[in-house]
Design a protein that fits this description.
heterodimer, A: alpha+beta, Arc Repressor Mutant, subunit A, 3 domains, nine-stranded mixed β-sheet, three-stranded antiparallel β-sheet, 15 helices, elongated, B: alpha/beta, Amidase signature (AS) enzymes, eleven-stranded mixed β-sheet, 16 helices, 38% helix, 13% strand, globular
């Protein structure tokens, strides 16, 4: 029998607010254990939460960008369970009235377009982290992450392949980063997904029993885990077995998933409305203000780059894939008004240097003004393209000042005809063989003479001047 | 001159007039605590040295004119579920037997900036769960009027300390009657403020949607002054209300002519002791004589108040008390093999019977399959109770009722019968469910000489009407001036 996989995702995105959801502690990643904590986020007796309004702003943004309805009357609920990383023993979340509902996101897998439904997006607080100390054989708790705001984005079970899942995650990540809602750093856990998988016979519309893999934070692992788990379920069914509803752990090293907890042991979270927080009413004005201040999303940017700047579809999609790259492109273009040149430098030099130095887009510190400056120096004939590459690298690596660097390294283009004339004469005199070759019709030899001249001028000459003078001299001789 | 039996405002005035100094009053109160608290057990901790140092400091601030509060320099005490920075805040529980919060409750800060001298922390039912202060890990508190009897609760230590003249005034907290009922049992005055009137920041939560901090004092005027000091919007408590401060300035003329007072007849039916009924109805007559218009009416929804209250309060408590898991602070059984054992043994050993009973009740009503039948239904009834109070206040300025169905009973008499104990809250819990204010003032004595309290219930943020009526009543009567002779002689407790 042929089977069809069915996948649904719960994606957690850590919000990039400066402070936590219910107190003023910093949300900064890292830091010595338990230094970003206060009585509120460490769950001391008698303390009370105060909602960070920015979290609601960000949730509305995310909801609007994913075509959701915004819930006007919002409440928080308590999800009760015991674990040492959860100091209050309840997580403040939203069960009954999540802030966003009924959205959709369009994905594109090799030209096949499809909508993935968003069931809901809700706001909640993150938990802390347990650290096992193998030396003392004890477990320590770090509450720094406690109370960092999260959005949980719950999709409908609309995925039918791992490729669709990755396309959706890529799109979601791009969107959240563009919105400024999250930095989505997978390796720091600021974007992570719970993956629900089941299989059913092709043509059926009755979903099979699902399993869940929690807290996955790499696209590669998610891709492999989905394919592995769906295959495991198919083989199980083919062999006459049944799939048990359970939580499984994906082991990327072993390339396999393992059962963790079955539904019989599922917890009863005893949700009820959080009495320490007032309901939040979201007005029309609040939504309109958010809409007005929404950053341009990648799709709109791509279309604009093509129509306004004349970039190719491919170039536009490469440039917009990362928010920071698009920002650099736009800033530099705004100064020098040469979008295609900027695009060439960004896709050529900048991306080469990024990959050589393993720099992530969000870590880029290069000043777009300097990129525009280099492009203008080239077009003004101050430096040639070879020198421009060297200057670009110096700007990228050491934040060099282009003009100063050119002066210090003597990279300015030589446009002095007398000097070029003198060198050309020298080159002709010392390469009689080439002159012979030219006479006998070997055009390549002329190129050699240009090369020798440029070499003698250390590459700084204006190639047009060199060509012109060489032609004049050759005409005299020939 | 005995200064320990004066009101807070009198002492505050005497300090201003330099008739007495704050350190002198503080010392006298500490003496009273030493001689009387062995039999009353109102205090869990006494901050002797700190209180004296604080009194010296406040006195010098008063002398320099840096402090204007009429309560400056007056010694008082705080219920042990209200956080005091770096000082034990045990909630009367083994679970927090060593807990010293690194922060003050907002009310503690307000008291200190008003020049209050904190004598110590007061005994209470464990986590404010109980109506007798018998469930305290630190032993039952004893009623100063008869030390074989309970103080009421859960703010039993607060009421007893004021009654026994071990504190001039005290802070308590009221979730279902925990200020009003011990006031009734101990013959002192108290206010349960409107929900949102006083910041809950730093009040260790029992049931978040019901808890309020309030004052207990010698008379209603003291209580009003303390309420003015501790109330107001607090950015740290989202449920505290932004509004103009309480204004009690025109409450003390004794004029209640034309005030409309409703008496709900179903509050005076079966279950109410004759000992209580008689003085309460007599006080209605007193108020009538003073010019109030008294009228009887029906308020039958209140019959559902007890089950509604216990479902909601226990549900919230089961969640609020989950943080006491032996991991971060407080009691922990250190002899454990794994995490589950830490949880089970720490919580089994750290909590007392009544707390465990309520956590189980609360966990049950929130569990899947029961949520709608219990929790959700109770929320709906709560809405109906609120509505019927709204209706009552469209006709009346306030409602007059008993505080508790009986006078203080013997220690141990009810402690094995939780249902009987819960029924003792019948006249008080609906006030918390509706989020409205109420006062409790002494209105007489039972046949055995135990005090009886009168409850006046008002509309949200209309504490001033209640204070005005209570003041008029206290100007006319002397029940609040009577002293419990037993405790003042040193007591007869074992």
């Amino acid at each position: 029998m042929n089977y069809q996989m069915v996948v649904g995702l719960e994606v957690h995105v850590e919000l990039s607010t400066k402070s936590k959801i219910f107190c003023s502690c910093t949300t900064e990643f890292g830091g010595e254990p338990n230094t970003h904590v206060c009585p509120v986020c460490s769950g001391m007796p008698g303390v009370l939460p105060v909602l960070n309004k920015k979290v609601v702003d960000f949730a509305i943004r995310a909801g609007l960008a994913t075509n959701c309805e915004i819930t006007r009357y919002n409440k928080f609920d308590r999800k009760n369970y015991f674990y040492p990383d959860l100091p209050k023993a309840y997580q403040v979340s939203q069960l009954y009235l999540p802030i966003c509902r009924n959205g959709k996101v369009e994905i594109d897998v090799n030209g096949d377009k499809k909508f993935i439904g968003i069931h809901e997006i809700h706001m909640e607080e993150d938990a802390g982290k347990l650290v096992h100390d193998p030396w003392d054989d004890c477990t320590l708790v770090d509450y720094n992450r406690c109370g960092v705001p999260l959005l949980e984005i719950v999709s409908e079970p609309d995925f039918r392949s791992a490729d669709e899942v990755i396309a959706y995650l890529t799109k979601l990540r791009e969107t959240m980063m563009y919105l400024g809602v999250s930095d989505c750093k997978m390796q720091e856990g600021s974007m992570r997904a719970d993956v629900n998988i089941s299989v059913m016979p092709v043509g059926s519309n009755k979903f099979g029993t699902r399993t869940e893999m929690k807290n996955m934070n790499s696209f590669k692992a998610i891709y492999r885990a989905i394919n592995y788990e769906s295959q495991r379920q198919i083989e199980l069914l083919e062999a006459g077995g049944v799939v048990t509803q359970e939580t499984r752990r994906w082991d990327d090293n072993k390339d396999a998933s393992f059962a963790m907890r079955s539904k019989e042991n599922a917890q009863d979270y005893r949700y009820f409305p959080e009495p320490d927080l007032l309901p939040i009413e979201i007005s029309e004005d609040w939504i309109n203000d958010t809409l007005k201040n929404m950053p341009e999303l990648p799709e709109a940017k791509r279309a604009r780059y093509i129509s306004e700047f004349g970039l190719s579809e491919y170039d536009a999609s490469v440039i917009t894939a990362e928010r920071q790259i698009a920002y650099i492109f736009e800033e530099a273009t705004a100064i020098c008004n040469k979008p295609k040149e900027v695009c060439n430098y960004v896709m050529g030099e900048l991306m080469r240097l990024m990959s050589e130095t393993s720099t992530l887009a969000e870590e880029l510190e290069i000043d777009p003004k300097k990129i525009a400056e280099i492009i203008e120096l080239v077009s003004d004939g101050k430096i040639n393209r070879t020198a421009a590459k060297e200057v670009f690298e110096a700007v990228f690596r050491d934040n060099a000042e282009p003009e100063k660097y050119i002066e210090e390294h003597d990279l300015a283009m030589v446009d002095n005809s007398d000097e070029v004339e003198r060198i050309v004469a020298d080159v002709i005199a010392s390469n009689p063989k080439s002159i012979e070759d030219i006479r006998s019709g070997k055009a390549k030899a002329r190129g050699f003479l240009v090369g020798q001249t440029m070499k003698a001028l250390k590459g700084k000459a204006n190639p047009q001047t060199v060509n012109k003078i060489l032609d004049e001299k050759l005409k005299e001789i020939l | 001159m005995d200064i320990t039996n004066k009101t807070a405002l009198e002492i505050g005035q005497m300090i201003k007039n330099k008739e007495v100094s704050s350190p002198e009053v503080t010392k006298a109160m500490l003496e009273n605590i030493k001689s009387r608290d062995k039999s009353v057990n109102a205090f869990i901790s006494v901050f002797e040295d700190e209180a004296m140092a604080q009194a010296e400091k406040v006195q010098s601030d008063i002398d320099k004119g840096n402090i204007a509060s009429p309560l400056a320099g007056v010694p008082m005490a705080i219920k042990d579920n209200i956080c005091t920075k770096d000082r034990l805040t045990s909630c009367g529980s083994k679970m927090l037997y060593n807990f010293k919060p690194p922060y003050n409750a907002t009310v503690t800060d307000k008291l200190e900036s008003g020049g209050a001298i904190v004598l110590g922390k007061l005994n209470m039912d464990e986590f404010a769960m109980g109506g007798s202060t018998e469930t305290s890990y630190f032993g039952a508190a004893h009623n100063p009027w008869d030390t074989d009897r309970v103080t009421g609760g859960s703010s039993g230590g607060s009421a007893a300390s004021v009654s026994a003249e071990e504190a001039i005034y005290a802070l308590g907290s009221d979730t279902g009657g925990s200020i009003r009922q011990p006031c009734s049992f101990c013959g002192v005055s108290g206010i349960k403020p409107t929900y949102g009137g006083v910041s809950r920041y730093g009040l260790v939560a029992f049931a978040s949607s019901l808890d309020q901090i309030g004052p207990i004092g010698r008379d209603i005027k003291d209580c009003a002054e303390v309420l003015s000091l501790i109330s107001g919007h607090d950015p740290k408590d989202s449920t505290s209300v932004k509004r103009a401060p309480y204004d009690f300035s025109d409450c003390f003329d004794g004029n209640i002519k034309g005030m409309k007072i409703g008496i709900p007849t179903n509050y005076f039916g079966k279950g109410l002791d004759e000992d209580v009924k008689k003085p309460v109805l007599e006080s209605a007559e007193t108020l009538k004589k003073l010019g109030a218009e008294i009228e009887e009416f029906e308020m039958s929804i209140v019959d559902y108040a007890i089950p509604t209250y216990y479902v909601l309060a226990c549900a919230e408590a089961s969640s609020n008390l989950s943080r006491y898991d032996g991991i971060k602070y407080g009691y922990r059984n250190r002899d454990c093999e794994d995490l589950m054992e830490v949880y089970l043994t720490s919580r089994s050993e750290g909590f007392g019977m009544e707390v465990k009973r309520r956590i189980m009740l609360g966990s049950f009503v929130l569990s899947s399959g029961y949520y709608d039948a219990y929790y959700n239904k109770s929320l709906k009834v709560r809405g109906l109770i609120k509505k019927s109070f709204d209706e009552a206040f469209s006709s009346y300025d306030m409602i007059l009722s008993p505080v508790a169905p009986t006078v203080a009973y013997k220690i141990g008499e009810n402690s094995s019968d939780p249902l009987k104990m819960y029924l003792g809250d019948i006249y008080t819990v609906s006030v918390n469910l509706a989020g409205i204010p109420a006062v409790s003032v002494p209105c007489g004595f039972g046949k055995n000489g135990m005090p009886v309290g009168l409850q006046l219930i008002g509309n949200a943020f209309e504490e001033n009407k209640l204070v005005k009526a209570a003041y008029a009543f206290q100007r006319e009567t002397d029940f609040h001036l009577k002293k419990p002779e037993i405790a003042l002689k040193g007591g007869n407790a074992q």
